[in-house]
């Protein structure tokens, strides 16, 4: 069994910052990539940022220059630094990991989410 647990969410004023953390635990053979998605009320879940073990990153256009993703794959942790927050960033943020458990196949696992609220 694999679990992902997020932390660091909260309520901030526009222009403020937050740092989200996510830790993967359980039986993991290898991790290919980790990332963050978000979902606002009535909206579909959308990609925020991802990073692979090779160091390749991908960001949504709406967060480029403001958010930074980083990971320590040996520890199974991923972080998202959110700077210059805007009200439209308000959403539930979900951690994900593309990984292979021992004896298993590659698949994506999801955390339970952490709330980010940005007020104007």
Structural overview:
With 120 residues, this protein is an all-beta fold. Helix content is 0%, strand content 59%. The protein contains no helices and eleven strands. The strands form two sheets. Strands 2, 4, 5, 6, 9, 10 and 11 form a seven-stranded mixed β-sheet that branches. The mean pLDDT is 97.
Q: Can I get a quick summary?
A:
It is built from no helices and eleven strands. By secondary structure, it is mainly β.
- Average pLDDT confidence is 97
Structural class: mainly beta
Helix-residue proportion: under 10%
The number of helices is 0
| Radius of gyration computed on alpha carbons | 14 Å
Shape: elongated
Number of DSSP E strands: 11
Main sheet makeup = 7 strands, mixed
Query: Hey, roughly how much beta strand do the residues contain?
Result: over 45%
Low-confidence stretches: none
**How would you spell out the order of helices and strands?**
EEEEEEEEEEE
């Amino acid at each position: 069994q694999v679990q992902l647990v997020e932390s660091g969410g909260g309520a901030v004023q526009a222009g403020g910052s937050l740092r989200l953390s996510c830790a993967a635990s359980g039986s993991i053979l290898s991790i290919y990539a980790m990332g963050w998605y978000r979902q606002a009320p009535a909206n579909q879940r959308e990609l925020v940022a991802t990073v692979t073990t090779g160091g390749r990153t991908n960001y949504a256009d709406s967060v480029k220059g403001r958010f930074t993703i980083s990971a320590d794959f040996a520890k199974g942790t991923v972080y998202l630094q959110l700077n210059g927050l805007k009200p439209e960033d308000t959403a539930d943020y979900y951690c994900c990991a593309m990984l292979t458990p021992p004896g298993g196949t590659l698949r994506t696992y999801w955390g339970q989410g952490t709330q980010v609220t940005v007020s104007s």
